[in-house]
Amino acid sequence: MRAVRLGPRSVAALALVSAIGVVAFGWPLFAPGDSGITTHAADAPWLFAALLPLLLAVVVATIADTGLDAKAIAMLGVLAAAGAALRPLGAGTAGIEPMFFLMVLSGRVLGPGFGFVLGAVSMFASALLTGGVGPWMPFQMLAMGWVSMGAGLLPGAARLRGRAESLLLAGYGAVASVAYGTVMNLQGWTLMQGMASGISYVPGDPLGDNLARFVAYCLTTSLGWDLPRSVVTMVLTLTLGGAILKALRRATRRAAFEAPATFEDSVTPKDPAPSDAP
Q: Per its UniProt record, what InterPro entries does this chain match (predicted)?
């Protein structure tokens, strides 16, 4: 049972947002040296802020396609608030970010559509909570939406349970945590000035050269955060995942998102006729 099912319009909007996101994340590796965008590398992330209305359009399209009801909105609000509250607990210290495991588990139970919306909304709420609003915020919203949506696309959602499911989600969470940090590095790589030539972005250089510099940049700057985030996500999924999965599935069954509303006429019984007996 899914809180939000992806209909044709929401799939199209999500595909459009994801395609633009891939371009926005990956343009430094492919932009030619004589391209106008390479002369404005420091301004490029601000252009990506235009993606925020498209992210909101995904939510609107999903509501239009599936009729997101009050129960689904309430669950979205509760989980987004929980995710936003979990993020500052580690404040990014050494990669301790416990919100990732909740996004993975929620996406698994509630499906890719709900997962994408939840990841984006949670990151937006946490940015407001921590004061982390800036040109990087739409990147974070999209990347976290991908993380949670990917969990909803994993196989065996209807049959796989128990330890095997926990291991699957722990492995996915570990990989997704590192992938999140890697794609976010692409967002900030072009803004870093004065770095060593072996790790800095060189506009217009061949793909292989810039890719080698980017790998070196990730290894020297963010791997110390990405790996602990991966380990924390995996450990929390293995230790708390089973109980949280059961709670989410129980809440989903009770909410009965897909059950149609039925109304029955209430008939008031008539009073029995008075007896003629003395």
A: ECF_substrate-spec_UCP037395, ECF_trnsprt_substrate-spec
